[in-house]
UniProtKB/TrEMBL annotation:
SUPFAM superfamilies: (Trans)glycosidases. Keywords: Glycosidase, Hydrolase. GO terms for molecular function: hydrolase activity, acting on glycosyl bonds. This is Glycogen debranching protein. It comes from Klebsiella pneumoniae. InterPro entries: GH (IPR017853). PANTHER family: GLYCOGEN DEBRANCHING ENZYME.
Amino acid sequence: MLSQVKLIAEPWDIGPGGYQVGNFPPLFAEWNDHFRDSARRFWLQQNVSLGDFAQRFAASSDLFARDGKPPSATVNPVTAHDGFTLRDCVCFNQKHNEANGEENRDGTNNNYSNNHGIEGLEANFAVIERRRASAHALLTTLLLAQGTPMLLAGDEQGHSQHGNNNAYCRDNALTWLDWRREPGINRLYRGADPPAASYSGAHPQPLVAGGMATSAGLIATPSP
């Protein structure tokens, strides 16, 4: 039975030596926060290089190539239970954790988000369309990148926590999911998922060790 168990690490903790991304044994897959931050910074802030984005898109060989780990060793999130939801990433520049009772001091300040000009969910049509395009870009990157994609429950529905990026203590409508909702991003997810399955998960490929970004794309070399 244990031979069928999938081992997935959230490889960070508080205290000295708590951050261990890429250091777990070969049988473990690991959450890769480098992918999360690079994808958000590339699409929402335009302050990360094409080379760094390409390396994260190609399974982060700088972190996972040693010990013969396959591309599936990197679990690629754009969002997780900690931090903004996908919708909040494109609607808020700042965290709004006042409801948690800690005077908004809890939760990270490094969200790499973009409200597209208006803070909050309500916006005009032009802003909503820009937000939709950014969310689609992030979701498509997640599904097509080499590695194991990790989708936060509710992101496919456009779920929002109204800017709360540390909602572990909110057992109420802020975090509950309405499974009856099915907006356009859910249709995008269904449309993008089949090529993602054929590209990375169903057919493991060698890690890309490095490459050169050009105007025509990325010239990459598989790691030995």
